Every structure is written in structure tokens, then in C-alpha cells.
Amino acid sequence: MASPLTMYVQIKQDKVSQTLAEKAVANFTQGVQAGLDDTGIVHYATLALVPNPSTTPGKPAKGYLAILLMTDFDLAMNPYLDTFWQKGGGIQAAIAAISSIAYNPPAAPITTQTAFENFINSVNLTPAPKNGVWTNFYQAYPLSVKQILS
What we know:
globular; 3 strands; 3-stranded antiparallel β-sheet; alpha+beta; Alpha-Beta Plaits; 5 helices
């Protein structure tokens, strides 16, 4: 059974942060693909920009409120994060970049596995399973990534 991560990070509203968020989404796959492939546990991952809400009906707002990472993976959360810390240089860099434009960034830059885990767990919207059962996550098949690829 896979596990989900729904990482929602509200971002700063300055021009530099907004531009960095756009670049993060535009370059996401190229930056993390090798690391994700190497782990052999990620079913999928997507990074998206959440637009600012409109304050005037019918008039679109400018800029982005947040950045959203959604992924499903084999393993529980912290073993998953350990895998990325150990194998995922591009993934570490992507999370550090996202944390740097966060509206409420971590107290210090992410330079340790503990800081990496703490940041991701603090912005994960997916509640933990209850007694090992997900109440908000559906998976259509019971196979792991390795089983699917073999």
C-alpha cells in the first residue's frame, strides 16, 4: 500500500519569490527525476502553483498564494523522507528552495535530515492513517513501484 504526501507551502508575495515558485514548477521534473527514479518507491509526484484568490468577482487575481507538492510513495512518511535525504540531492535542493520562499520559513535553512523531515511534516496536509488505515486516501492497486516495474 502506498502513502500520500500533500505538501502545501504558502509563499511570499514578493516578485523574487513568485518568480522562483514559477521556475520550481517549470523545472520540477528535470530536477527530481533521477532521484525519484533511484529511490524506486515513488508512484507519482506533481508540483503545482495555487493562485491567489480573486477579491473581485470575475477579475482574476495576480500571483500565487502557495506551492503544492502531491506524491504517493511506498513506505511510511519518515522512512520515505529518509530515502530522499540519503539518495535525493535534487530532491533536497528542491525542498530547500521551496522552504526559502515560504511565507513562514523554517527558523534555519534546511541542512540536516531532521530539519528536512520537520519542515515537510509541518506543511503536510495529509493526516496520518488511523490504526494503519488511510481515511482520506484511495489506491486502486496493492502493488509497490518495484512490483509494477518488474
